[in-house]
Amino acid sequence: MSATDKAQPKPPMRDSLVAAAFRLFLERGYEQTTVDDIVALAGVGRRSFFRYFPSKEDVVFPDHERCLADMTAFLAASDERHEPVRRVCDAARLVLLMYAENPSFSVQRYRLTKQVPGLRAYELSVVWRYERALAEYLRGRLTGRTHGTLHADVIAAAVVAAHNNALRSWLRSDGRGDATATVDHALGFVQSAFGTPPAPAAAPAPASAALSPAAEHPEDVVVVVARRGTPLWRVVREIETRLEPDRNP
Amino acid sequence: MSATDKAQPKPPMRDSLVAAAFRLFLERGYEQTTVDDIVALAGVGRRSFFRYFPSKEDVVFPDHERCLADMTAFLAASDERHEPVRRVCDAARLVLLMYAENPSFSVQRYRLTKQVPGLRAYELSVVWRYERALAEYLRGRLTGRTHGTLHADVIAAAVVAAHNNALRSWLRSDGRGDATATVDHALGFVQSAFGTPPAPAAAPAPASAALSPAAEHPEDVVVVVARRGTPLWRVVREIETRLEPDRNP
């Protein structure tokens, strides 16, 4: 087998194992498919399978390890100029890109995962690792803030929940529609709740009776007048909308 | 065995199984302990064990099913007068109560769970079920809001993350300190980001140069003046603090 392995470049063999696995999962069901079935269909040996995938579950999520590594590298390449909440939102978008690379595969996997409790548990552990990567980065950036670890954990969880809400909505629509716009909107909600607005743009935001840049210092001051009963999330959204009209469709 | 089972009231047998299991887990390790070992030490049969616990993992978390049922009942008993974000925070406090009922057991379990990957995965699935219970309630309450399901999922995730950050901090301190105060503070952060302030109190909030109730309509209007670069979470926290000084230590 090892001679055969060496004769083939690695990516095709890995891809053919994933393709064989999914063909069998869809035909027979996940539980009814063994690793022996998969390697027989792919025309390789068991050792080749386990070189790429520690277990049958891992072949269902072949790209998460790479994506986790990409996310960690992306966050490690940050510096002080990156607004931290925006940065973790951008890191979460790497997961969306992985799903959007191959919509039909992602939709098939989504349906499979919903049917198999073991895969659901596996997915939860993967999601947890993404969330910890975001939280660890935020903890580093928010160390100067009182209760920085609390804020880091809450923001990371909110980012993951927003991303996954949008991703699931796209997967439920069979991968139709604009996944990027859906995820952008969802992450915008988290940024409106927790993020710091970026440096002011050259042009002042449009004035309004409810919320207007003070005339004396158009770039520095925002005045909010709100009824006391106004929900805080509405106040925040209003501020965000007025400050950055382009970012809030 | 069934005659013996009937002779004993159920709670003591269930408790003695948990006590025997934890004694063995701590002495020998979780993986090295079998269900047979547990029932031998507890002096009962295997059938009795599986009557109470579907698997060895479940004996590690003997109260989560009851707590999930309590949480679901608590949320089902809500009505329109309950501010939804505050309501899910109160629901999350039921989990804290379960842990705080028996601090030494909770601390032992925390250490065990950190050591055994299988238990960590089990715990993630339990946490996911709590989060879904909160999100389902919020989805029902926020149906009138645009993007209600997104907001529901994000708020539920933030509540769970805040609760668990505080709970873990208490468990790491070996169950010393005021768990309730720690969790209250953590949930207060989520409420400040997403919650609706309650109906105004009888006395107006104290005036301040930065943020003061308008003199003409002290109960109805709040004025915020902030530099444009101020992080939004700071604006929100400031509003919350001024409106409800008692709720923000």
From TrEMBL, chains A, B:
The keyword DNA-binding applies. It holds the Pfam family TetR_N. InterPro entries: DNA-bd_HTH_TetR-type_CS (IPR023772), Homeodomain-like_sf (IPR009057), HTH-type_TetR-like_transc_reg (IPR050109), HTH_TetR (IPR001647), MftR_C (IPR041347). Residues 11-71 form the HTH tetR-type domain. Keywords: DNA-binding. Residues 34-53 bind DNA. It comes from the Bacteria. PANTHER family: HTH-TYPE TRANSCRIPTIONAL REGULATOR PKSA, HTH-TYPE TRANSCRIPTIONAL REGULATOR RUTR. This is AcrR family transcriptional regulator.
